[in-house]
Amino acid sequence: MSEDIIVTEGVTVSFGDFQALKGIDVRIKQGEIIVVLGPSGSGKSTFIRTLNRLQPHDGGRVEVDGIEINEDTTVSDLKHIRSEIGFVFQQFNLFPHLTVLENIAIAPQKVKGMKKSDAEELAEELLEKVGIPEQKNKFPSALSGGQQQRVAIARALAMDPKIMLFDEPTSALDPEMIKEVLDVMIDLAKRDITMIVVTHEMGFAKEVGDRIMFFDEGHLVEESTPDVFFENPKEERSKLFLEQIL
Amino acid sequence: MLMLILLFVIIPALIRKYENSLFVGDIQFGKQLKKWPDMPTILGVFERIPQIKLNLHFMFAILFILFSFNLYLVKDAEPGPMMIFLMTLGIIFSLLGSFSFPHGKLFTINNNHLSLFFAVLFVYLSHSMSLFIFEIFSLLCFAYLAYIYQDELFDTFWNSIITLLSFFIIFNLFSGVMNFVFIETDWNIIWRNRRTLLVGPTFVDPATGHEIWRLWPPFYFLMAIVGAAYGTVGEKKSSFLLPYSIFAIVSIAFLWQEEEYYSGFRDATITTRNYDPVDSTLLLLGGFALGAGIFNWVHSRYKDAEEYEIKYFQNILVSLTIIAFIATILILDPPGDKEGDYYWNSEDKLGTGVKPAGWGGLFLNLIFASAAIVVGFGLGICLAFGRRSDLPLFWVPSVGIIELVRSGPLVAWLFFAQILVPDIINPVWEADIASRVILVLSFFFGCYLSEVLRGGLQAVPYGQYEAATALGLSPMQTKLQIELPQAIRTTLPAIVSLMIGMLKDTSLVFFFGIYDIFRVAQDIPAQPDFLGQHEQPFLFVALLFWMLAFYLSRISRRIEKNLGLKHEGGGDAT
């Protein structure tokens, strides 16, 4: 029980009349790599957003790292949870008025109270890791999409998170840039870090994922290992999905 | 002019159109008629004028010669030996320069420039010497200009008509303005009162004129900041230093003060007391030298620097500007009303200062506008975020203040400051009228700014907020570090136009006995020497305001460039 870092029970989210999530139960262990698949509109992005309360849920229970997240969660707990969870967006969402280095160093400074010089040193290390140390003093708009996404990953890593959430990190990229981002993510997967990746990259899912979660119409339809999911899916809906994309 | 159109535009066009149907019988007459000239044909007489290419120095030389010619013949002035010596020197150097510089090194003068120059010159001469013949010369010069640009001006029938008509209007307007500005009008009223116009009566009045020293530190601050700010832009040196030195020379020439000057408020010519013209000129020179020196230093240091280094320096500069501004206020009017209130009020330290009611002239407009902008900026940011807040505690008062302040005209609010505000705040703070006016101006600026900023905040993508939140930044940090800088970036043009508006609005304080430049301009025609000369001061004030507004808008365009807005679009989503 204690090694389950994320536990959700019957999570529901509605936007007006539309119910985006209709009761999701998952248990994710520390260090697991989860790949979330599903057609668009199936609620996969909404689901990972509930985990750091970018998207408040209306029903059920979300527990991250032993702290339950709901409207009663204290500000300091929420801040703690958010600094534990790195989030990478589809549209990068880098801060255009800050340089690459500042983009990465701002959170450690402002949230953890790190000294500016230390934060920048950390930022340079991380840029080295994602392979673009020479871009540190440029502004995001001067970078390519792939480089921007790698900066975004470095920015999320700067908070030294236990969990990384990826919300379709490669969907907004040109094909030749997808690989450079995926390489960084594969590198990351080798470490003891819990990753939940919403993606359409089946190759990545097969190679890296410990478990596949298949979402459809707000339900968690199938949960199985990549081998089972891609070779021999249990559910009819999963088969249909795989036929369409493969 | 209509004759010209009829003869050389309409008739040739008619002949072209009907040449086949007309004159079938009389071939000889038809041939003659076909030769009827149109505009380009007439202008063809200029074909033989050779292309001239001159160096800019040559132009200076001509200007010098014409200037001296003007002094001797037109104005009947008697230039002293020193003047003649200097002018001769100027001519010799300019001529030498024009031959020693290679062509095209600087700006090259060609026929276009020359003909325009002489056209304008002849207009001037025709008025100043009242000789009609010069007007003909000038028209000839314009005609030559038209010949050069005939492909654009006379290419079609309608274009020819529009060209001639608009030339007619522009020429008359221009000639009238020239006559008014240079010939008919006596600008002595401005010349004599120029210090009053710039700094107001208190700093010029012999009894209190020694307080003028308080204006020098602000001037030095300003020059230092201007120099440093331009140094970070990273353009060519000459593109700053050339306009800067012209401005410096003009200011020094303008502020040069004779031993005696006219104080309109004492109705007499008064010998300067406590004022040394040589000292002040040296101080002025020092200020400009400081600006140029700092520009040089910053320029050489940041020419090849990384963008982020420049940004850090600029941030420091902004902070320094605000500190300098506060220092300016403290030097002008240190806290404490009489000697001994605080230790700095003694005579050998800062003294008791000059109350804001004693400030005046253009300087007052600038101070009021910058105070209102600085205070109003803080206020506007608070109001903008307040209005966007979900908590009624914040948005109700914000909306209330914004709507209330925007509901009344500024004049009404200024009267409010004069009449009602003392009743409200006097028990707490006995503010003089100037401080109250600044307060009202700040509120006014803040409210309009808040709405502009709110627009900018709405334009910040939601993803930015999400990213900041996901990183764990608090709502306050998200607002100040992420949303606000981006909002200011996008709304900069609107903010600058608000600033220009505020600068002009400060002239409304002339209702309340504050001697701002507009009030001074209104009052100086009461001086016995210049009785009733109302046009000149107002035109001069208009010119100054125009220059300031134009300069501000140029700066804003430059800032937009430097904010990296030119890079925008390089990334996909940011």
Tell me roughly what share of residues is in helical segments of chain A: 25-40%
Average pLDDT over all residues of chain B: 78
Number of helical stretches of at least 4 residues of chain B: 24
- Tell me the major beta sheet of chain A: 6 strands, mixed
Element order, helices and strands of chain B?
HHHEHHEHHHHHHHHEEHHHHHHHHHEHH
Low-pLDDT windows of residues of chain B: 263-268, 566-574
Count the helices of chain A. How many?
A: 9
Q: What structural category arises from helix and sheet content of chain B?
A: mainly alpha
Largest interface: A-B, 38 and 31 residues
The oligomeric status of these chains comes to heterodimer
Q: How is the largest sheet of chain B built, in terms of strand order?
A: 1-2
Architecture overview:
The complex is a heterodimer of chains A (246) and B (574). With 246 residues, chain A is an alpha/beta fold. Chain A is built from 9 helices and 10 strands. A 6-stranded mixed beta sheet of chain A has the order 6-7-8-3-9-10, with helices on both faces. Chain A has a 4-stranded antiparallel beta sheet with strand order 2-1-4-5, with helices on one face. The longest helix of chain A has 15 residues, at 116-130. The mean pLDDT of chain A is 89. Chain B is an all-alpha fold. Chain B has 24 helices and 5 strands. In chain B, the strands form 2 sheets. In chain B, strands 1-2 form a two-stranded antiparallel sheet. A two-stranded antiparallel ribbon of chain B has the order 3-4. In chain B, helix 20 packs across helix 22 (475-505). Chain B is globular and about 100 Å long. Classes of the chains: A alpha/beta (246), B mainly alpha (574). Chain A binds chain B through residues 52, 54, 75, 79, 82-83, 85-87, 89, 91-97, 99, 101-102, 106-107, 110-111, 137-143, 145, 148, 152, 155-156, 159, 172, and chain B through 306-308, 311, 461, 463-464, 466-474, 477, 481-482, 485-486, 489, 564, 567-574.
